[in-house]
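Protein record
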Amino acid sequence: MTDLKILLWWIFVWFTVICIGFCIGAYFRYRPKTGIDDEHDFVNKYEYFGQPIYDREGKLHGYELLLREFNQRKKCWQLPKDVADFPLSKVVYTIRQIDPQIINSIQMLALNMTVSQITDFRADYFFKWVRGVINNQQLTIEIDAADIRRASPFKRWRMRSLLKKLDHTVVKVTIEDVDSTQRTYAMLKSFLPYIDYLKFNINSFEKSPNHWIDITLAQWQRRAEKYGIVATVSKVEEPGQIQLADQLGIHLRQGYAYGQPDRVHVGGKPVKEK
């Protein structure tokens, strides 16, 4: 009888511990998070700008939404500082403000997301909502290579698992701001089977006496082609950079040479980024 009481006691203890563990896990999983659903001061301090993406023939292919911060002292919009996660609710609001004629004139709408956002359970619902708004246009999610570098090994594992399960006919995935270092290639190698685009920072592939290139853009292309990944370039500003993209047959380009970011606004004149 005593042995039965002890057994029941330990069953009760383990059941209690498991229940507490589930409660703690549920709290951290489902609690409101800054950058997911809490806006705080994002409403007045930050806005989204749309930057066009062109193809090799100079035809508009898509738009990327870029977060910008308003500098009160200089009275201009600039790249944000110390913003880890912008709220997905703000993205939802912004997409609603885009002129339907713009949406209908492009093939792709690209949205930036952080590793924390894309690994959150709400990301799947977010993808479905955006797909319903942009109709037949391709939704592309862009994740910064630097953000992946900062992520913990566990978060990288979760991200790979999510990308592996993702329906890539519905949502395409881009890793952006890819440079020419061996370190970046080693970090991204395990992600290559599960992404659709690599967006290269073209400035990282320009030769100079003070800049060492571990992996050339052509080498990156050959490795990307093994997985059917499409190469794109960003920050294209100079004629020489355009020529490099032409020589390598890179179809999609983005940068000031093709168009500056404009503030997304309906019913008024777009505001240029300073």
In short: The chain has two domains: 1-31, 33-263. The two ends are 80 Å apart (CA to CA). The chain is about 40% helix and 20% strand.
